[in-house]
Amino acid sequence: MDYLKIFAPATVANVSCGFDSLGFAVDAIGDEMTFTKTSEKGVKITNITGADLPYDVDKNAASAVIKKMLSEAKADFGIAITIHKGFSPGSGLGSSAASAAGAAFGVNQFLTKQYSLLELTKFAMFGEEVACGSAIADNVAAAIYGGFVLVRSYEPLEVIKLPVPEALTVVAIHPQIAIKTKDARAVLPTEIALQDAVTQWANVGGLVTSLFTNDYDLLSNSLVDVIVEPFRKGLIPFFDEVKTNALNAGALGAGISGSGPTIFALCKGEKSAKDVYKAIESTYKKTGIGFEMFISKINPEGMKIIK
Length: 307
Ligand code: HSE
Prior knowledge:
- 37% of the residues lie in helices and 27% in strands.
- By secondary structure, it is α+β, with helices and mostly antiparallel strands.
- It has 2 domains: 3-162, Ribosomal Protein S5, domain 2 (2-Layer Sandwich); 168-297, 2-Layer Sandwich (Alpha-Beta Plaits).
- Helix 1 (61-72) packs parallel to helix 2 (95-108).
- It is globular, with a radius of gyration of 19 Å.
- The termini are close together.
- L-homoserine binds next to helix 4 and helix 5.
């Protein structure tokens, strides 16, 4: 094989209660990347469209991952890539993760001894470190495994793929401001109250249980974040209004997607998702701030080979 084109999905990390440990992949938006095998060793970025990202192979999340993989696999060939960003960096939808995970997945197709999904996640985490300074796994694991994932442990890395209830649908609004993950992490406390920890881990347990049992009421009750959201929501204009109106319109829950500013709402079924979409849209239209929105099913398979 000399050429490959893939779709790397956007992802929603944290999912309210699961800071740095829960995430899911979406279907509606993502990046497209192409990979061309070259006889010259190493990695080259030939084109980036849709966002202003570095061409320096050590600073770009995708090429940094590819360079590391080719070197560790002792590949006797190189890879030239193009990246078409389908959504903006700084959106909270796992932009650097899509690039890093897409890179790991794509290059793997060219290797004779392929890496496992867990190993690909580790390579992609290196890309996250290059892009935002922290080797976070929730977005990249969701992009690579697809569906809903739980990062059960970082040391050693353990990722568990969770089931996705059939009717689960996500509505998201991306207010047109950018928040750097680094900045959104800087506002977080280093210590938390035991009572908050109890609430949070009980909700993670409830959310995971609800995915296995298709219990939408339990899912709704568990989509609560008492630790991270209170500190980050001030970075997102009209967060409380969007959340309240989404819940009033029937959303199961709503919260910050990853490090924001995208706000996600989970809904049961398409009809409910459309109602929630309208409620969020009319809330934000009054603010004068530009925004983009989408409705999506949860993407069960993660990466897709296009050709
Ligand atoms: N879990 C991460 C965070 C996701 O919330 O900071 C962003 O990469």
